[in-house]
Amino acid sequence: MLNCYKRPQYLKEQIEAIRSQTAAPAEIIIWYNKPEVGKQYDITNLGAKVIFCDHNYKFHGRFAAALLSKTEFVALFDDDTIPGSKWFENCLESYKKKPGIYGSSGVILHENKYTPNHKVGWNGATPNPSIEEVDLVGHAWFLKREDLAYLWREKPYSWDNGEDMQLSFFAQKYGNVKTYVPPHPVEDRAMWG
């Protein structure tokens, strides 16, 4: 599930990166969130399914739309995230060892506060040579489609942001599903999210 809102210039590169995965996706879906006034993008010729929304459901819409997928696993990406060619394979292999929600940039909270924190994965974080348990992940998610339902077990505290924190928290609270960052080895960036 890709997201088109502020940075449509990355969609083509994202789609190429997803099609180049060593573990091929069954389908690619774009969630077209209502853009800001005066900004419209032509994304009809990218070879992906497109869900057009005439209301800005902000960060949560793509997670609801991903529930429509017919696959066992789903992957969601922020609109500026380009996965390495082994990202899906890395997540699938990691899931076999430790089932849960996987993401490319993880956060370990300290004293139940968002800051200061310790980041794992990429995006200014510490690359990790092995699977690392974290409190939440962002930028790219990989999980069983059925685990998306945990996000909706309670009304979100905020519709402005926090879908990453809410998903991990509700999945652990209601399903004992933990959150991880798969290996992001320094020597093989193709495995990175």
Verbal overview:
This protein has 193 residues and is of the alpha/beta class. The chain has four helices and nine strands.
Short description:
The chain is of the alpha/beta class.
Question: What is the secondary structure topology, with strand pairs?
Answer:
Blueprint: E1 2-4, H1 11-19, E2 29-32, E3 49-52, H2 61-66, E4 73-77, H3 87-97, E5 101-110, E6 113-121, E7 132-134, E8 136-144, H4 163-175, E9 179-181
Parallel strand pairs: 1-2, 2-3, 5-9
Antiparallel strand pairs: 4-8, 5-6, 5-8, 7-9
Structural class: alpha/beta
If you compute it from the alpha carbons, what radius of gyration comes out, rounded to the nearest whole angstrom? 16 Å
What percent of residues are in strands?
A: 25-35%
Span between N and C termini?
Answer: 14 Å
Question: Could you name the key traits of this structure?
Answer:
193 residues; 4 helices; alpha/beta; 6-stranded mixed sheet; 9 strands; single chain
